[in-house]
Amino acid sequence: MMALSAVLRAMLTEVRRDVRAAQDRDPAAAGVGVVEILLAWPGVQALLAHRLAHRLMRAGVPVAPRMIAAAARSLTGIEIHPAASIGPGLFVDHGMGVVIGETAQLGADVTIYQGVTLGGTGFATGKRHPTVQDNVTIGSGAKLLGPITIGHGSKIGANTVVIHDVPPNSTVVGIPGHPVRVEGRKPDCPDNDWVHLPDPIADAIKSLAVRIEALERAGDQSRAPEPFEIDLQRSTGPNPAGG
User: Fold this and answer.
1) Is residue 227 assigned to a domain?
2) Which residues contact 57 (CB under 8 A, 6 or more apart)?
3) 41: burial class by Cβ within 10 Å (0-12, 13-18, 19+)?
4) How far apart are CA 77 and CA 49, in angstroms?
5) Closest Cα partner for 55 from 42, 64, 46?
6) For the chain, how many structural domains are there in total?
7) What domain range includes position 72?
8) 2-6, 116-120, 137-141, range with the lowest pLDDT
């Protein structure tokens, strides 16, 4: 009985922090009460279901954890495997299409937007899903694949495909993802400015285009045509007109 009460207290603490994460990181939740968030925020609902399913699975309870996960997926559009390890303060914004695999591990205060996949590659067993450290923000549609590690404080751009480890405090964009270090500083809060993310591939292509244009101009100048001259001197010999 004491063990059950301890579990319930721990779950209550986690749910409170999950609700607070929604209030802090979702502008639409400003001034919204706890009860309304629990009833209307699918990300919070999916987390509540997962925390219950996860504890039941760790306790060896059959069938029920997967049934809870399936029901939560049907209601919220968010699929979280009961065995996935999720730290406190996760915020899933909108959440439709989010998939978190069996061996995924998420740290504290992670932010995930809709359409994100934390998936595996191939049919390997064992650890096959990403490890996401604290204070990571993952943009809409991003795919993190395989047993990679996303360093704390990093930001994954929308629709990025990440298949390699990401250093801490980095920004990753592109397909496949390319990390760009953000001056080694840890963001104080999730940065939602997805429009101005650095793109090293685009920058390199732009530099090449400028260089090619300069070379073409130089080539055009070096191939300037010679001036056309007409010889107006009278040729020698008989006049073809006679006389």
Assistant:
1) no
2) 65, 82, 83
3) buried
4) 13
5) 64
6) 1
7) 2-202
8) 2-6
**Number of residues assigned to the chain:** 243
Cis-peptide into 176, omega within 30 deg? yes
Q: Is residue 76 part of a domain?
A: yes
Q: What confidence score (pLDDT) does residue 184 get? A: 54
**Does the pLDDT of residue 110 top 60, yes or no?**
yes
- The answer to whether residue 145 is domain-embedded is yes
Helix, strand, or coil here: 79? strand
Q: Give the CATH number of the domain where residue 114 resides.
A: 2.160.10.10
CA distance 44 to 24: 13
In a domain, 144, yes or no: yes
CA 238 to chain centre: 89
Pair type for strands 178-181 and 170-173: antiparallel
Query: In terms of Cα–Cα distance, which of 134, 49, 21 is closest to 87?
Result: 134
**For residues 217 and 23, what is the distance between their CA atoms, to the nearest angstrom?**
57
Average pLDDT, the chain: 84
pLDDT digits (tens, 9 = 90+) for 170-220: 999 888 888 776 555 544 555 555 555 566 667 778 888 888 888 888 777
* Residue 214: predicted pLDDT: 82
